[in-house]
């Protein structure tokens, strides 16, 4: 059985609860039987539970993993900092790197993307089954395994590992063959994920590309491993991210309305790997701005760190289609023009510079994004012309140590920089 839900899952800052609705449809082509005859099937990421109730309806920690109300209260918002950079550049930074999703402890945009996964699982485990004859019967959780794919040091990999460990369900991760050095000396996000129980399935480059480069990202290219397996596309780019990203958009909109003067033009700058966060925030901000009666502008601008403008735009179009919004407007993209994840001198220079302002960036997305921001701001006809910069710090700091080690091996930083 495939469970599916309308992608318009709203979570506004003004609400103290999540709401959702559901519908069911059979999709036998993605179901399989295990050795005991149990039907294994995928659960669509657009629905993990039939409904999520108000936080005060969850009262007893003993019936769930944590109190839903506590989780929501500790996920209320992330702060915004106002800084002057390079003597004259005024910027606002939305510090999602300081955000923590209580329980699995993940931060940044991954905390946003995994919010619905964790809250729905807690809600399911914390409420008695109304159809059960026994009051002590715990309802069956909405999922019983996670499956995804991606790079060896992926932040999404680590976040899913933390979620699966917290929910006490298995997590299977498909990746290319491990390099010899990482296999012999596990480190960084890979080591942390393995310690949290992640099961790794290595594929040759050809196998990996055949499985994950041809099929749409929302359709798993293999049979589900358990009766209710949740397939999470690379980077969490799916309906799973809608609720958390809509909430982020609401926080940004509220800050814009309350802190910027009438007529202000603000560019919400978001680093892009898959483009998921930028697209979903762009969609929701556009919806919110329809009711804005002022004369200013609030627009999302992505930085194409992985894949550049062309690659990110293509991924956004695919995600738009998969979330039921094919043909919608897309955010404009700054072309990064820095080789993805390669040690580069100007990237580590900006990393060091921003650290002096109290802003700690990762070297895969954050620092390259700021290299691009500084460059774009200088252009007389750039995308940031006449716009106040509102940067969303998407986190990703878990892998900084291993990233700096690579910069050390490339002789771009001294040993004392690596921690």
TrEMBL record:
Residues 121-149 are annotated as: Disordered. Keywords: Pyridoxal phosphate. Belongs to the ACC deaminase/D-cysteine desulfhydrase family. This is Tryptophan synthase beta chain-like PALP domain-containing protein. Residues 121-137 have a biased composition (Low complexity). InterPro entries: ACCD_DCysDesulf, TrpB-like_PALP_sf. It comes from Triparma laevis f. longispina. Its cofactor is pyridoxal 5'-phosphate. GO terms for molecular function: D-cysteine desulfhydrase activity.
């Amino acid at each position: 059985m495939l469970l599916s839900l309308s992608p318009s899952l709203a979570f506004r800052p003004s609400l103290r609860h999540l709401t959702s609705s559901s519908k069911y449809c059979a999709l036998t082509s993605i179901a399989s039987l295990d050795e005991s005859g149990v039907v294994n099937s995928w659960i669509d990421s657009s629905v993990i539970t039939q409904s999520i109730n108000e936080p005060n309806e969850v009262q007893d920690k003993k019936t769930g993993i944590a109190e839903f109300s506590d989780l929501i209260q500790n996920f209320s918002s992330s702060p915004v900092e106002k800084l002057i950079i390079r003597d004259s550049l005024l910027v606002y930074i939305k510090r999602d790197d300081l955000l923590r999703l209580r329980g699995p402890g993940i931060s940044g945009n991954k905390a946003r993307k995994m919010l619905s996964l964790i809250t729905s699982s807690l809600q399911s485990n914390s409420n008695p089954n109304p159809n059960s004859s026994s009051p002590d019967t715990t309802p069956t959780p909405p999922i019983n395994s996670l499956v995804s794919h991606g790079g060896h040091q992926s932040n999404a990999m680590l976040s899913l590992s933390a979620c699966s460990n917290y929910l006490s369900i298995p997590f299977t991760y498909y990746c290319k063959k491990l390099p010899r050095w990482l296999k012999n000396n596990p480190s960084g996000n890979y080591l942390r994920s393995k310690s949290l129980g992640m099961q790794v399935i290595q594929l040759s480059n050809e196998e990996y590309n055949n499985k994950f480069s041809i099929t749409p990202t929302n359709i798993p290219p293999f049979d589900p491993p358990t009766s209710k397996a949740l397939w999470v596309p690379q980077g969490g780019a799916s309906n799973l991210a809608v609720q958390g990203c809509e909430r982020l958009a609401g926080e940004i909109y509220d800050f814009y309305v309350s802190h910027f003067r009438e007529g202000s033009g603000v560019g919400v700058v978001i680093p892009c790997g898959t483009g998921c966060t930028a697209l979903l925030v762009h969609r929701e901000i556009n919806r919110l701005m329809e009711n804005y009666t002022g004369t200013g502008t609030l627009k999302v601008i992505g930085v194409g760190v992985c894949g550049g403008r062309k690659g990110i735009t293509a991924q956004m179009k695919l995600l738009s289609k998969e979330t039921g919004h094919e043909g919608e407007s897309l955010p404009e993209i700054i072309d990064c023009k820095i080789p993805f994840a390669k040690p580069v001198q100007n990237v580590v220079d900006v990393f060091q510079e921003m650290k002096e302002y109290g802003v700690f960036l990762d070297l895969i997305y954050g620092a390259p994004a700021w290299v691009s921001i500084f460059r774009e701001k200088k252009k007389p006809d750039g995308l940031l012309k006449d716009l106040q910069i509102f940067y969303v710090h998407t986190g990703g700091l878990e892998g900084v140590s291993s990233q700096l080690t690579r910069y050390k091996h490339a002789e771009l930083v001294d040993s004392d920089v690596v921690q």
